[in-house]
Amino acid sequence: MFKGFYTVATGMITQQRRTELLTNNLSNANTPGFKADQSTIRSFPDMLMSSIGKTNAPAYQQVGAEYMSQVGALNTGTYLQETLPNYIQGQIYNTDFTTDMALIDGNLPQDEEGVMGSIFFRLEHPNGGEAYTRNGNFTLDGQGYLVNGQGLYVLNDAGQRIQVPNDDFRLDENGAIFVNDQQVARVGVSFAANPNRLLKQDNGLLRTEDGENLPTAYGAADVTFTLRQSYLEGSNVDSGRTMTDLMTAYRAFEANQKILQAYDRSMEKAVNEIGRI
């Protein structure tokens, strides 16, 4: 069997998964707070092929004598090594809804691996613990609690639900919520030193690997940020670049497909024609 079958197959699988990732990014181009996923493609280690056969010595000297000669390296294909969200802030735009909020990144330090930290709104997860999001498209439920689009409660800096009489409240840049000029809560904001370690879930939610809550961003060393009322953070998906990458992935898949068809025709000829001889 042609060893190229494996190389072509891994290439097709890689480009298919990359296409799915890019398609998901493109479909969320208008989702507030969405962070585009980025992929890393790597090749499997090459194999050094060698040929083992008889020597070119005279017949009387070839008894038990064999030699090994190098044929060359064989590429064993590619794979999608990992996918990581891009946490660069998206564009901030006005909505005129007082319950909408946007996080504005200030100074965010890097960890020992050189990864820049990120800040998130705190939400109460229905399975316990907290979930995190950059989507500040909030609203009020029937009891006056601040909730997100999936009905998860928005938490304050003490980890408690935020309740206000109505949507006639004021949010200052430090996260404090005022009703009739009296502070009633402060929007909970958490800081992740390495956001790449967070687990991405449905509806733009993030959770920690161990289920532990992230530390508060208020007062964290070298962390500065502001909040803005009646604004939302848009998706950081670059639609033009994503479409270009999507076409590139499609063409690469198509090229691998044609090579696979050529191998298939060669195999067919070997079976149907050479086999007769």
From TrEMBL:
Family assignment from sequence similarity: Belongs to the flagella basal body rod proteins family.
A single GO BP: bacterial-type flagellum-dependent swarming motility
UniProt keyword RNA-binding present: no
Protein name: Flagellar basal body rod protein FlgG
Entry-linked SUPFAM superfamilies: Flagellar hook protein flgE
Family annotation (PROSITE patterns): FLAGELLA_BB_ROD
Organism: Lysinibacillus macroides
GO cellular component, one term: bacterial-type flagellum basal body
Pfam families: Flg_bb_rod (PF00460), Flg_bbr_C (PF06429), LlgE_F_G_D1 (PF22692)
Superkingdom of source: Bacteria
Every Flagellar basal body rod protein N-terminal domain range: 5-35
Ranges for domain Flagellar basal-body/hook protein C-terminal: 228-272
